[in-house]
Recover the amino acids of this structure.
């Protein structure tokens, strides 16, 4: 016996199919948007989050209460405001960890109040650009005042009392060149620091061969080290250590730290650079690679260690300037490492030396 499909059953299913198709199309559209979007139900539980939202706030969003996901009272209060007053809320919130972010939020009701949508725009780059501009102007005006004053003083002297004094002219011109070079280094470092800070919220993911970078730096600095009879010992040439990062910035970090070890180490003592794997980075559930740069210099007093990476902080200003330092090198190092979600540890003992340890995420 043949059975025919009942038309009423097919007709009853058509609205369901159309609704499912409409929901799928809506989800596809939301998923393709560049701006993060989160949808909550009446219970403040995340029912939907597009890829941009999960990239920003973490993969485990759907099915969790908004309080657990964002841990940001300002955002939770905005959601409650929209539910209670049935009005759209627009404002900004600052997320301090793991790296400070500034977000512009648009919170609105869904339909008749069945839920709310949170649309996010990352304004971190704009905020950082504004801050960097203000900081750059302030720092340049402060740090360049001294060398500029010296240059102006020597120029006035050469135009006046020392105009016909050949010996004074030669001496003053040498000092003027040194001051001009110091200003050039300072401007270069300020620009470098500004670029790094502006990019700090963007995590680089390029595969970088750390062994190759360290070997190149050792080759470049070997003549400088030989001039002080300081062997550069690299304990990493037997294998490749791969990290996730920006090759140029990682080079800048280790060139700065190894150069400092040569400058501040004692003549005739070695500088050791050692790499090793970590099963887990401190405070992060990811494998890492630690690089230690150890010198046998005079050491750093404990009270100075917490402030070493502050901009323009110098333990011995006269010695730092004599060696060509601008007071920005370790600040640049710190911000590059922060951008890579790494860590910088410093250990030092007076009369024994210092060890700078950089920990970076391993490229898996």
């Amino acid at each position: 016996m043949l059975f025919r499909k009942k038309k009423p059953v097919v007709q009853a299913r058509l609205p369901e199919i159309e609704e499912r198709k409409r929901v799928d199309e809506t989800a596809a559209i939301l998923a393709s948007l560049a701006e993060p979007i989160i949808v909550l139900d009446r219970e403040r539980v995340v029912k939907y989050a597009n890829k941009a939202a999960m990239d920003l706030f973490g993969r485990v969003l759907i099915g969790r209460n908004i309080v657990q996901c964002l841990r940001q009272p300002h955002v939770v209060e905005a959601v409650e405001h929209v539910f209670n007053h049935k009005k759209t809320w627009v404002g900004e919130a600052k997320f301090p960890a793991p790296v400070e972010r500034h977000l512009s939020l648009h919170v609105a009701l869904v339909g008749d109040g069945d839920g709310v949508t949170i649309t996010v725009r990352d304004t971190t780059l704009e905020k950082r650009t504004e801050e960097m501009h203000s900081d750059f102007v302030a720092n340049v005006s402060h740090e360049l005042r001294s060398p500029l004053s010296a240059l102006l003083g020597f120029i006035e002297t050469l135009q006046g009392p020392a105009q016909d004094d050949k010996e004074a002219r030669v001496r003053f011109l040498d000092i003027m060149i040194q001051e001009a070079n110091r200003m050039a280094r300072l401007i270069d470092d300020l620009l470098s620091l500004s670029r790094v800070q502006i990019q700090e919220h963007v995590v680089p993911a390029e595969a970088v061969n750390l062994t190759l970078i360290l070997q190149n730096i050792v080759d470049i600095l070997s003549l400088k080290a030989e001039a002080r009879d300081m062997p550069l010992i690299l304990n990493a040439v037997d294998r490749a250590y791969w990290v996730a990062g920006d090759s140029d910035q990682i080079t800048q970090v280790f060139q700065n730290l190894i150069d400092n070890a040569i400058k501040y180490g004692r003549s005739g003592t070695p500088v050791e650079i050692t790499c090793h794997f970590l099963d887990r980075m401190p405070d992060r559930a990811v494998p890492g690679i630690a690089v230690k740069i150890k010198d046998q210099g005079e050491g750093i007093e404990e009270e100075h260690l917490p402030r070493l990476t502050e901009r323009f902080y110098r333990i011995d200003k006269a010695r730092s300037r004599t060696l060509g330092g601008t007071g920005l090198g370790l600040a640049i190092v710190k911000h590059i490492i922060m951008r890579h979600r790494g860590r910088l540890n410093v250990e030092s003992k007076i009369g024994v030396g210092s060890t700078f340890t950089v920990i970076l995420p391993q490229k898996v």
